[in-house]
């Protein structure tokens, strides 16, 4: 940083030296030559304009004022000089002023505009002869206004772009938090429901049926260990994604669950007292990871709600692998009117909401509600991508 500033100051000093040589080294040269030469010398201020725009503006004001008030070749030229020749050098001042307005603080921009306007007005008023005073002043004012307007537009565009980036970051953070909330809800709610059911069973039969109570405790232990392991994998994944893993600890992450794990989910639900009949149809094939995970989470949430709300001992899970879509259906014959999300009792959790969000993100459709014959039904349709060999044949 010190080296770049030193180079910028060296450019500023070189600019002042060149202007001095132009004005006092060639006093008989025409004013147009002085103005054009000073404009070319202003390129030496490029580094200072980028890093110290206010200092660059002060140097340009000093240099170009020296060009205007310096010695001229003849009195006739001073009397007949017009704005394009005598005051041409102030165009570079206006360009630097526009950069100041675009990049510096508002108070600094206001002070810079006021100082620049005052200096140009005094110089034009003191060194304009004949009837060109008003014309030169108007031209100088218009040039300064154009530069300031360009600077303001650049500032507004930059601030608008920064606001859009901030909004995108906020939306991305919100979406990620919602995703994590869905994952944690789907992961914990099912296990906690099973643990609560088994704890209730164990407390009731611990004195009369010790073996049943022991079985309930073993189910609670297995379920809690599995949930703890899943939570740990999730937290490790979040730490690794943020680069915040402690030391060199990198725990291997298990693959995300999918429809291949539905039987394990059904067995865990059976341990909670609800027998699950899993039926598969269609040509089973590997699915995209997001669709596979979404289908698994829908089944998991639906089974959780069956255990907690349906008051039944049986439910059915149907998975159909269609050509264009994957259909998942969970049906029970319990108390559908009191199930979470029904019309009779409004939903107080986030199960149905989470399922709808998952399905909506994949462009599918979800229906959940009581059945006319009793019980509750959750059905999801997830569109499947076209198989690669079919797409090749179509092309």
TrEMBL record:
It comes from Microbispora catharanthi. InterPro entries: HATPase_C_sf, HATPase_dom, Sensor_HK_TwoCompSys, Sig_transdc_His_kin_sub3_dim/P. It is an enzyme of class 2 (transferase). The keyword Thylakoid does not apply. Keywords: ATP-binding, Kinase, Membrane, Nucleotide-binding, Phosphoprotein, Transferase, Transmembrane, Transmembrane helix, Two-component regulatory system. The chain crosses the membrane at residues 7-26, 32-49, 56-75, 87-105, 110-127, 133-153. GO terms for cellular component: membrane. CDD domains: HATPase_UhpB-NarQ-NarX-like. It comes from the Bacteria. It catalyses: ATP + protein L-histidine = ADP + protein N-phospho-L-histidine. The keyword Glycoprotein does not apply. Residues 290-386 form the Histidine kinase/HSP90-like ATPase domain. GO terms for molecular function: ATP binding; phosphorelay sensor kinase activity; protein dimerization activity. This is histidine kinase. Its EC number is 2.7.13.3.
